[in-house]
């Protein structure tokens, strides 16, 4: 194993250059104009896998291609599936980037570019670890399957269709994902829970056209005002969501979990600074770490109505729209929560306007026991790779496909993040820390023997 670790240390600069190549593809799944870039990006990753001797297929789908690549088969050995996504969030607003999002550049120990941390750098680190095994003749103790998709940032529709049709090809003992964060380089962690998500679009229609606000103001409802008032009723000033039955299925945090989360060595003030907010706001009775990982939310992601151009325009807009997402926690069920929210909005909407609600994507929350042998093996590999003991953390973000891995493959997922809290995922100036990249690769070298041994000891 040391030979593989030495190889990674020697090849560090070239592996950073490889990541730069990967990041140069503007693989923005949300924007149809980038469809060709998305396909080229999938092909780039597939070619890397092929060059290393992995049996690789790029599957066309109803949407963006899915890449599956397997290491040379070792009969009788366990199989682990490494999941990642090559699609990225839209880079806008461009003017807030110090250097262009798809022209990756190193400053200090950070590589800046859209997709560096979310998620190209993190799953490429796994492939690089496999390269280190294969190129140094170090025998891999298990079979690995890379499953890398191109629609994670827009709800993984194609992968939901793909999984049940490729059960046998993707059969595995466990899934490993590095698409999440750790509290710090000196505080790596194993993540045992993710929040789920449910997306909605709410539209309020009023007058048949924009009306002169002088001639008509005061006689008909203003849809923008009606929408604001309606949404304003969804949360109280204690940070609690007021939708009846919203919290019915929320699993409370155990004292053990609260104690684990409390070990994360960052203060509320540091966290506030990270957000750039004047003051923190969250549900009363919970720490910010609990609020952001183990409590559900009701977020407005976008709000549109009326005139947004220069100067003023005195109108009553004829419609108003809001894009909403709810972050859900174990054991909330997206469809049930959406039904509760829809019913509440409909109950509260005044008869002076018309309300239309559309559902978007959804994903279940995820929770895995951190006590099992595989989780313990992962904790050890994380400590070896990062050189510091691993904490247990929950994460606030969502990777909806994780629960489908359980359903269709019968496999639990271990989440081993490499992203740092200030990596700016989804924000301008996204970056990936090159020390996290290196530590992540070392972790991935240690991981496979650790997991293989853990399974063997369970079977013995
Ligand atoms: N990598 C994130 C998810 C994530 C981030 C998990 C941080 C844990 C910690 C992923 O790429 C992502 O952004 N997912 C979306 C899913 C959504 C579009 C369905 C999210 O969480 O908003
Ligand atoms: Zn993301």
Characterise this structure:
- It is a single chain.
- With 460 residues, the chain is of the alpha+beta class.
- The protein has three domains: 2-194 and 365-459, Aminopeptidase, CATH 3.40.630; 196-250 and 296-362, Alpha-Beta Plaits, CATH 3.30.70; 256-289, no CATH class.
- It has helices at residues 2-23, 35-51, 116-135, 157-165, 213-216, 223-232, 255-262, 268-275, 288-294, 334-348, 373-386, 401-409, 434-459; strands spanning 55-59, 66-70, 79-85, 105-107, 110-112, 143-149, 174-177, 189-194, 196-205, 211-212, 299-305, 315-316, 319-328, 354-363, 366-367, 391-395, 413-415, 431-433.
- The longest helix has 26 residues, at 434-459.
- The chain starts with a helix and ends with a helix.
- The relative contact order is 0.19.
- Zinc ion (ZN) is lined by residues 89, 118, 153, 425-426.
